[in-house]
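Quick question, first post here. What does this chain look like in 3D?
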Amino acid sequence: MRSMMAAAALALSFAGVAANAADKPRVVVETDAGRMVLELELERAPVTVCNFLSYVADGDYDGGSFFRTVVRATNASPNPIDVIQAATPRGSDDDLRPPIPLERTRDTGLGHTAGAVSMARNGPDTATSSFFIVTHDTPSLDFRGGRNPDGQGFAAFGRVIEGLDVARRIQLSPANVEEQLTPPTAIRSARLLAEVPPECRP
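> Answer (accepted):
Ran it through. Tokens below.
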């Protein structure tokens, strides 16, 4: 009887963990190279996640692309990275919505490990719609990392839970000397697998 009760308690515990994981918003990104599922850290990076979901909910990534690839082995920077970058059809400087405050990895605790999803930016507080996926651990993108001269890092806000192999395949696709994919990998659609969370509604 005790063993059955213990097993039941353990099952409930695992169910609770699964439920908590299921509470995180998930977005399915369908590309010409395959499917990726992104799980977003709403509690830890709420500003960034809600901004991203506003573009997803309006279908703004549909018809966009993964247009840039950076491969550590061929990158001349003193702080090489492994990423692919995406944009809406309006481009990486899409100004449909105002830029958002930078949620630093120092504050969120979300590092740029393999599979991390993060926002592209120029200076702090300039990110809009363009995002990137980290294909291999790249700590130089974190707060105090050397990739950006200001040392503020980039805003990681989720991770790829399915399809990291797709991201890596895109990364190794043909590109020119300016790191532009030739041709870009089209984004067919990006869809939220539930309703927009209350925290992100106007």
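The first strand starts at residue 26 and ends at 31.
The domain at 27-200 is CATH 2.40.100.10 (Cyclophilin).
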